[in-house]
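Before a computer can learn anything about folding, someone has to put a protein's shape into writing. The outcome of that step, for a single protein, is printed below:
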Amino acid sequence: MSIYNIAVIAGDGIGPEVLQEGIKVLNTIAELDGSLHFEYTYFPWGCEYYSQHGVMMDEDGVERLKDFDAIFLGAVGFPGVPDHISLWDLLLKIRKSFDQYINIRPIKLIKGAPCPLKDVNREDIDMLFIRENSEGEYAGAGDWLFKGQANEVVLQTGVFSRKGTERVIRYAFETARKAGKSLTSISKGNALNYSMVFWDQVFEEVAKEFPDVQTASYLVDAAAMLMISDPKRFEVVVTSNLFGDILTDLGAALAGGIGLAAGANINPERNFPSMFEPIHGSAPDIAGKGLANPLAAIWSASQLLDFIGHEKYGQLVLDAIEGLLLEGEVLTPDMKGAASTAEVGDRVSKIVSSLMPSVMVE
């Protein structure tokens, strides 16, 4: 039996609700395949923990997490706790401590999902964004001088090391080559005359090692326009921390909404655990009401399955999500339905069960 130890950080707002449905789907697969088992350890960290203890996570939190096979995160953020504290003292702390330098966000318009674009084929929206996840504009470097004075100055420094830039670009090329797809780099070299010129230079250098991979390069403003006007030109995409953060939210809007947006924070060398999370935020206004859409968390569970080597089950979960959307009967209010969070998770699990026999035969 393959046993996987999963650290669960349900977090804030709707985090516990949606994460429970992702776990429900993982457990369904494990029950149907007796050779697979998940063991969960729950950590109470988040904004509520901060309000009680003054910290987002325990001082030895990183040490306690390091031996898990993966981390499953719900959501972080709640009114009363400044966003920079909830982000930097939990989510980014984990990403940086475990060198999760690859952020993977699929932007795929699956059957049954709504799309705001007119006259677009479902197949035209199928992008895989690979975002640099450890430095860049989110490195936390800078200074705040002369606070409160007339000559107050704030410096926010983007950090682009050769190691950090080259490894994410190389990972993207390897991914594109394996998938037989093109690779697009998105930067802003005309205005950011140090960081993005360097990024473009490294992209061109690494591209020489992958002559079989078709490449393109766009400025971020042009890329945002083209994602809407001609999305099919984007297959595998590599970009910086900030640009990737913004463009993948745009992509989520194209591919069914933020309720379908999943994300993986990967340490490719597997020296540390990787972390899987929906990217929709904590939505405190609907927390505890059973209204939250759990499909992004369930999609994140699919990414977790892919990463631990069970790609056929990862695809099975996506097929089940697609089946749910095509039925159109068990959907949460954000998708014009009346079902609860738990009812959606139950239905996905039932579809997984119905599809499982054919997958196990393969």
In short: The two ends are 19 Å apart (CA to CA). DSSP finds eleven helices and twelve strands in the chain. The CA atoms of residues 117 and 282 lie 27 Å apart. The first helix runs from residue 15 to 32.
